[in-house]
Each structure stands twice: as structure tokens, then as C-alpha cells.
Amino acid sequence: MYGARFSIIQAFLKNVAVGAENECWPWTGSMRNQRGYGYMVTERYGSTNRLSAHRFAWMLANGKEIPTGMVVRHTCDNPPCCNPEHLLVGTHADNMADMDARGRRRHNTQRGSAASAAKLTDAEAATIRADYFAGGVVQKTLAQRYGVSISAISLIVKGRTYCQQAGDR
Asked: Is residue 91 domain-shared with residue 124, that is, in the same domain?
């Protein structure tokens, strides 16, 4: 993929816009995945591999391989960034905790009536739960009454969607 004239380090540096120490250094190469992370294609022993730009940046800066099972996290939340000062090694759980703390994980950012696709209010969901658990009404009837699917009612009843306050259990 890269000719003998370029080492992998030269090819990498050619595709990174290195800036000030505290700035993001974006991957400027043409290859990015759907989430915006840059990558290079390398060939070794006749095998073609993708090499994530931010992971390579961390390894280059630290002079060692990323430990098995670990991920490289961005402190800047900028997927194309290759600035080693913005990169930390951690577990997948660490990465998910970062996402939660910054409000970036999709299913944690908007719940219940705050979700953009919500068709019910939190109060309606509480009423649905109360009516269902009081008995005498089935989920299909509740779905028709509120204009939502039976599966939506099921998720509300199970407490998987919409906030469930202590008083409406």
C-alpha cells in the first residue's frame, strides 16, 4: 500500500495536521470510517490490515503496543484527532463511562418524554403502568388508547422506557 519510499511513520505524519500542543491534530487522510475515525491501510507479510490513526498515534508517542483488550480514548471527543496529549488508554467500560459523563451515549442522553421521538409524557407512562398493574386492562387496549405500539406499552410496563418514579411502581 505504501511504497518503499515511505515508511509507515512518514505516511502517518503526512496525513495529520499537527498543531499546537493543546489543539486537536486531525487526521487529514481520505480514509475514515462511518464514525469519523481515520485509518491507514498497511500491508505486512502479504496481509492487508486497517490501522486506526488515533491508535497508531498513541503507540508512536508512547513507544509501545496498546495492551490487549484496551482501547484508546479521546479526551477531546473528536474522532479524527491524533494528538497524543488527547489520547488515553483504558477499558471499554472506561470509554462508556466517559461517554456517559459527557452526555454522548445516545440512549443515555434523552429518556422518556425528553427523547425527540417520544409520543407520550412521563405522566402518561406512569398512568399506563398504574392502569396495567391495577388489572382489568391489557397492553393491546392501552396501546390503542394512547396510539402507540404494544411493544412500546410492554417496555413502559417493564420499566425499560420512561422514568419510573418511586411513587408510580
From this structure: no
Whether residue 121 is contained in a domain is answered as yes
Sequence letter at residue 120:
L
Taking only the tens place, the pLDDT of each residue in 82-106 is: 999 999 999 999 998 888 888 777 6
Distance CA(29)–CA(48), nearest Å, equals 18
164, burial (CB in 10 Å: exposed 0-12, middle 13-18, buried 19+) = middle
Return the H-helix or E-strand segment holding 142.
Answer: helix 139-146
pTM score, whole prediction: 0.59
Give the contacts of 5 (CB within 8 A, at least 6 positions apart): none
Residues 141 and 75 both lie in one domain = no
